[in-house]
């Protein structure tokens, strides 16, 4: 579990995070939801240590990360896997080498054969067993995201962070990436944090959703509760999507909760 | 400017704290040696051979006094090449080629989040990406300067012989006159200092690039400009200190 306590961050006097307190639960897909410029990515970067918060603390399974000793921060970081918005694959390496890279760097005790087996397993897990020899420039955006996920899970990460995993992808590929993240989270019981403003992702994988608005946490709950949330800013955000409006209609008609209102049904309406 | 210099020093310090394992550093340094050294041989060879040739022809053109022996042309080509042209011009050429490559490469890695990916993995990105580039430069620049010295003198020899400015015998006699071995040492010291300046300044500019493709280009240009200025200032300082 990751606990964020009163995290604040400013840039040139502009306060982007205004004292956010929240927790991300183990074995769940935790979604950081909000519009552009609400501080989602800044909060994510503070959590993974790419930015230092001005105030507040971040704790990983009881171990304080913020302002702790370098070796303790390093230990925590080695348990982190991250899928970046642009995938951030090393473009001078093949797909296989990209996935192997964290193993080479973080687990020097592994033999070459063990590394190769692990890479093959991870690539197979994300459905890319035949793409190992390709360069990142030779594969599609969706495949890059899959490679990014494979690289993140290769060293048996405990925490998986995904920064807008659906950006730049078509709806079908987006759903597949969401499903993959969801399956991996539950399969390995890891703590997953997904930054998104995509309502499809909310409906598909939102075990736990935190809604940010102007640097503050306004609401948290799960995907079954979100359509009935009574926060005006959240309602305005989620019902700006016609797909969600349709899903809500199905939800009301079937009275079966959002689970009954699948995306397919919404599309049919 | 003081702030930038302070940031530059902090950048160098960050590279030396939490270094990667020696085996990783060694492999990365060898990779960079190929990119920085081997891939620069062609341009260094062309530039140095022609500079030697032009130096020889121009000295011959200016040396019209019949009382001065023609072997002086060979002597002057050697002195100019070893003391100044080979280390300084080669380093300026490499500032353009290697410096822009380092700044552009690191800048692209920064804006495509590859540097962030390394940091998230718990890898010291400065140590992993920059230290091998600086070490490789400091290893390869002196070797390229030695090559440049040799080719420049050969270029002078060929130009002098082919144009009839002086005979091969006179040229060889000139390049063997009053040879001071310390000049070679001085040139190699200069090349190591220039290598550090080019690679460190270019890495610094590339590593902290922010924005997009335009900013990567701007960072490369600034890296080359700053490297060349640093080379010229260091050239004067070293000459004043060591000669």
UniProtKB/TrEMBL annotation, chain A:
Keywords: ATP-binding, Nucleotide-binding, Transport. Signal peptide: none annotated. PROSITE patterns: ABC_TRANSPORTER_1, ABC_TRANSPORTER_2. It comes from Hymenobacter luteus. GO terms for molecular function: ATP binding; ATP hydrolysis activity. InterPro entries: AAA+_ATPase (IPR003593), ABC_transporter-like_ATP-bd (IPR003439), ABC_transporter-like_CS (IPR017871), P-loop_NTPase (IPR027417). Residues 2-239 form the ABC transporter domain. This is Phospholipid/cholesterol/gamma-HCH transport system ATP-binding protein. PANTHER family: INTERMEMBRANE PHOSPHOLIPID TRANSPORT SYSTEM ATP-BINDING PROTEIN MLAF, PROTEIN TRIGALACTOSYLDIACYLGLYCEROL 3, CHLOROPLASTIC. Pfam families: ABC_tran (PF00005). The keyword Nucleotide-binding applies.
Automatic annotation (TrEMBL), chain B:
The chain crosses the membrane at residues 34-61, 134-159, 180-204, 224-242. Keywords: Membrane, Transmembrane, Transmembrane helix. InterPro entries: Permease_MalE. It comes from the Bacteria. The keyword Glycoprotein does not apply. One of its GO terms (molecular function) is phospholipid transporter activity. This is Phospholipid/cholesterol/gamma-HCH transport system permease protein.
């Amino acid at each position: 579990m990751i606990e964020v306590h009163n995290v604040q961050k400013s840039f040139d006097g502009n306060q982007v995070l205004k004292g956010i307190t929240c927790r991300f639960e183990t074995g769940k897909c935790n979604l950081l939801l909000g519009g552009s410029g609400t501080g989602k990515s800044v909060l994510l970067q503070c959590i993974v240590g790419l930015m230092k918060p001005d105030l507040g603390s971040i704790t990983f399974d009881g171990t304080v990360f913020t302002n702790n000793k370098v070796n303790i921060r390093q230990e925590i970081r080695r348990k982190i896997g991250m899928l970046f918005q642009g995938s951030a694959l090393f473009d001078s390496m093949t797909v296989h080498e990209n996935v192997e890279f964290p193993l080479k760097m973080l687990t020097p005790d592994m033999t070459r054969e063990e590394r190769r087996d692990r890479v093959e397993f991870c690539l197979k897990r994300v459905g890319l067993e035949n793409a190992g020899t390709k360069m990142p420039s030779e594969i599609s955006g969706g495949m890059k995201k899959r490679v990014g996920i494979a690289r993140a899970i290769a060293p048996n990460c405990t925490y998986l962070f995904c920064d807008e995993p659906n950006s730049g992808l078509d709806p079908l590929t987006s759903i597949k990436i969401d499903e993959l993240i969801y399956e991996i989270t539950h399969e390995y019981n890891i703590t997953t944090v997904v930054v998104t403003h995509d309502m499809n992702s909310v409906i598909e994988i939102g075990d736990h959703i935190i809604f940010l608005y102007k640097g503050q946490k306004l609401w948290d709950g799960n995907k079954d509760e979100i359509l009935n949330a009574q926060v005006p800013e959240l309602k305005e955000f989620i019902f700006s999507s016609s797909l969600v409006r349709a899903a809500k209609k199905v939800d009301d008609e079937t009275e079966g909760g959002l689970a009954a209102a699948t995306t397919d049904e919404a599309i049919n309406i | 400017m003081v702030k930038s210099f302070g940031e530059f020093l902090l950048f160098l310090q960050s590279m030396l704290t939490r270094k990667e394992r020696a085996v990783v550093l060694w492999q990365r340094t060898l990779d960079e040696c190929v990119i920085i050294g081997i891939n620069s041989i062609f341009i260094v060879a062309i530039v140095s051979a022609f500079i030697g040739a032009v130096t020889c022809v121009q000295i011959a053109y200016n040396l019209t006094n019949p009382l001065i022996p023609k072997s002086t042309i060979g002597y002057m080509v050697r002195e100019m090449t070893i003391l100044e042209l080979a280390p300084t011009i080669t380093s300026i050429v490499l500032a353009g080629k290697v410096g822009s490559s380092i700044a552009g490469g690191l800048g692209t890695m920064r804006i495509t989040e590859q540097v962030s990916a390394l940091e998230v993995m718990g890898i010291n990105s400065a140590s992993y990406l920059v230290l091998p580039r600086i070490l490789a430069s400091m290893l390869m620049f002196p070797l390229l300067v030695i090559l440049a010295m040799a080719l420049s003198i050969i270029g002078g020899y060929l130009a002098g012989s082919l144009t009839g400015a002086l005979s091969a015998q006179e040229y060889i006699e000139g390049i063997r006159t009053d040879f001071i071995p310390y000049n070679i040492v001085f040139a190699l010291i200069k090349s190591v200092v220039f290598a550090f300046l080019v690679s460190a300044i270019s890495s610094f500019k590339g590593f902290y690039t922010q924005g997009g493709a335009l900013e990567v280009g701007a960072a490369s240009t600034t890296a080359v400009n700053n490297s060349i200025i640093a080379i010229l200032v260091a050239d004067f300082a070293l000459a004043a200190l060591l000669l």
